[in-house]
Design brief:
The chain is an alpha+beta fold and 101 residues long. 49% of the residues lie in helices and 21% in strands. It contains four helices and three strands; from the N terminus they run H-E-H-H-E-H-E. A three-stranded antiparallel sheet has the order 2-1-3. The longest helix has 17 residues, at 73-89. The termini are far apart. The model has no long low-confidence stretch (mean pLDDT 92).
């Protein structure tokens, strides 16, 4: 009796599907960047409402950092670059980091 080698090999292959990780965009507190500017960045780039942007800004100020959003890596990186570029163009030193969720 002969066995088909291709069938034998297929039976031995185990499929593993890895889903891409999400990344948190984290704003860090500093004593130079005005809170109004942080609120505007959260509204313009991260699409928060006025109320949630103000709440997040207070959390950043009081706790030292807060998550502005959770996205795929590419989107998280793009939003962080946009926010950092806007901050630097205004002379502020807003610090943002990405962290795997």
């Amino acid at each position: 009796m002969t066995t088909d080698i291709a069938t034998e090999i297929e039976e031995q292959i185990k499929e593993t599907v890895l889903h891409p990780s999400n990344y948190k965009v984290i704003f860090m507190n500093d004593e130079v960047t005005p809170m109004d500017f942080v609120v505007e960045v959260l509204i313009q780039i991260f699409r928060h409402s006025q109320a949630t942007a103000q709440d997040l800004t207070m959390k950043i100020h009081e706790k030292g950092s807060a998550v502005a959003g959770v996205y795929s890596y590419e989107i998280a990186e793009q939003k962080a670059v946009e926010a950092t570029t806007l901050s630097r163009s205004q002379g502020f030193q807003l610090q943002i980091r990405l962290e795997v969720e």
